[in-house]
Design a protein that fits this description.
With 419 residues, the chain is of the alpha/beta class. 32% of the residues lie in helices and 15% in strands. It contains 12 helices and 13 strands. Strands 2-3-4-5-6-7-8-9 form an 8-stranded parallel beta barrel. A 5-stranded antiparallel β-sheet has the order 1-13-12-10-11, covered by helices on one side. Strand 12 and strand 13 form a beta hairpin. The radius of gyration is 22 Å and the shape is globular.
Length: 419
């Protein structure tokens, strides 16, 4: 069943451009492993999902993020059990799938063989002996080579993170080293080294993927003075980038007011920079631990997770600078696996958007699409008396489809059709 609202085609095109400026999705870096091991995914009604990316696309998601390690074979067994496995071949294959679905692809460079975060930014084993000058060359050549291979594989990134949660620098040296090259906002040491690395990585990005946006990613949402000082230093040292990327986990960072304070600080001091929440999550079942308990406001339940997600989106949509929202590890799902012999990781992840015990999508998964805005008002757009001759079917975010296969808004012959 459908109803048709006639529009000037140019109005439809403007709507496409408007909604394409915002991105919602998740970091699905483990999806191929779950698929390989036979995890069973189901929709809200318990029906089997045959094509996960297609399901997420039909839920309104339009972008996906994937991490890349230099050589994850060098990670410890513990780290591999936590999900460290994404080498270049892995990312090429998954990135190609994302692009083939018409989704934007966010590439997250971990310039390490294992997890890179504020407490761990260890130099890859094959780079440890390099001098700083040689590292500057290496990060440029490595970044450039990766992007060349991704382009050749049909997986050109649309957004590129040059480092993951680099609040205190990156490429510190060998794991366990006593001479870590950290960058503290209260100490000028190592900032020149750190920002030179970022500039060389960014140079490779601009050369190979000139249309891609560069994201500089931190996670100090709860420490606005540190956050401001970090991006002040990016400006002072001339680091070129497009987007401020933030991690926000309420169980570590605090309530939604904490995040909004951080966003207000960034909007005030770094006008012209877009902001993306490149990692977030909240549990639908059990506590995630951490340092802040939000369960009094959002209980650990499917409804609590949904309410958190919707309140987060309501707040973010009050800020025009916020252009992206990505859930961390939404695809985690052990349903259908033999935990004793065929598990994907060594532990469940409790903030997934699929229930580990039933395989069903949680309500919050579909709520995420509202970050792109309320499309109901389209019905009030000016009516046209003439049809366009354009016979293509387009989704509201500009993707061409052969024919609508799910409920939603589509543009066809200058009309918006509601299926």
């Amino acid at each position: 069943m459908k109803r048709i609202i006639t529009l000037l085609f140019i109005a439809g095109a403007l709507l496409v451009n408007t909604y394409a400026q915002k991105y919602v999705g998740g970091d699905i870096s483990m999806l191929p492993k779950y698929e390989e091991h036979g995890a069973m995914y189901k929709d809200h009604d318990g029906n089997n999902i045959e094509d996960m990316l297609e399901f997420l696309r039909l839920q309104g998601w339009n972008s996906m993020r994937v991490r890349l390690f230099v050589d994850p074979a060098n990670a410890t067994d513990t780290e591999k059990g936590e999900g460290v496995c994404q080498d270049l071949d892995y990312v090429k294959a998954l990135g190609k799938r994302i692009k083939e679905k018409g989704m934007a692809f966010v590439l997250d460079f971990h310039y390490s063989d294992t997890w890179a975060d504020p407490a761990k930014q260890w130099t890859p084993a094959s780079w440890v002996s390099l001098s700083d000058n040689d590292l500057y060359t290496k990060i440029y050549e490595y970044t450039k080579s990766v992007l060349q291979e991704l382009k050749a594989a049909g997986a050109t990134p649309d957004f590129i993170q040059t480092g993951n949660e680099i609040s205190y620098g990156m490429l510190w040296g060998e794991s366990g080293s006593s001479s870590l090259k950290k960058c503290y906002t209260s100490n000028s040491a190592n900032w020149s080294r750190f920002t030179t690395l970022l500039k060389k990585a960014g140079e490779a990005c601009r050369e190979e993927c000139p249309d891609a946006k560069i994201i500089i990613h931190t996670e100090r949402a709860a420490q606005t003075s540190v956050l401001k000082a970090f991006y002040d230093n990016m400006a002072s040292y001339g680091v070129e980038y497009d987007i401020i990327g933030l991690s926000y986990y309420p169980y570590y960072h605090g309530d939604l007011n904490t995040l909004e304070t951080a966003i207000n600080t960034l909007e005030t001091n770094f006008q012209g920079k877009d902001i993306m929440i490149v990692e977030t999550g909240y549990s639908s079942h059990w506590s995630m631990g951490g340092t802040f308990d939000y369960s009094g406001t959002y209980p650990y339940s499917e409804e609590g997770q949904k309410n958190f997600t919707e309140d987060l989106i309501d707040m973010l949509n009050n800020h025009g600078s916020v252009k992206g929202l990505y859930w961390w590890w939404p695809e985690a799902n052990e349903y259908g696996l033999d935990w004793s012999t065929n598990r994907v990781t060594d532990n469940w992840y409790n903030a997934s958007l699929f229930d580990n015990e039933t395989g069903k999508a949680t309500l919050a998964l579909s709520s995420l699409r509202t970050f792109l805005g309320d499309l109901d008002g389209i019905a009030n757009t000016t009516v046209s008396k003439e049809e366009s001759n354009d016979d293509r079917w387009l989704t509201i975010d500009g993707r061409q489809v052969s024919y609508p296969s799910a409920k939603g808004l589509y543009i066809h012959k200058g009309k918006v059709t509601v299926f």
